[in-house]
Please model this.
Amino acid sequence: SVAAPGTDLTGDLIIYGGFRTGATPPAIPTNFTNLQTSTDDLATDISVRVAYRITTGNAETVSGISASTRSLVSVWRGVNATPVGSSAIGNSGGSAGTTITIPNLALVNTASRVVAIMFNNAASTPSLPSGHADLDSGNASGFGYRHAQLVSPGGTYSLYTSTQTSANWIAAAVEIRSS
Model:
């Protein structure tokens, strides 16, 4: 299990991004709702799952994670009663590349935040997309990752990219609706 960062309170939103080397995405954590999954096949399969949940207590942990090489978790406060607007996931289509294209979103709420989650199968940290703030990033054991946010992008979230060492990749974008 993974401790949710910071002190989460009842009603907070937890976003989970799990990565693994292999053709099957990591399991959905206990009491989470699946948003998106993707698998990309090149020389080494990689797969990603993105899920969320609303906390029902304070200082919760994210449990039931299995077959995850790396898990990214973020906690969001002050979210709408329907916290997740739109979400999307994309991958490199089985071709190595140096540019990660983050999926476009038509936002439900113009005051939303967008969380971008990127993984690759190279020991290369994806670059921070323009205008985003870094939440977590790094590389280890032959893969790289970045977890970033963009505050109030307006009505659309589009044309954001990240650069990396040539590799296959998976990227997801999740709209977090403000209250």
About this structure: The mean pLDDT is 88. The radius of gyration is 15 Å.
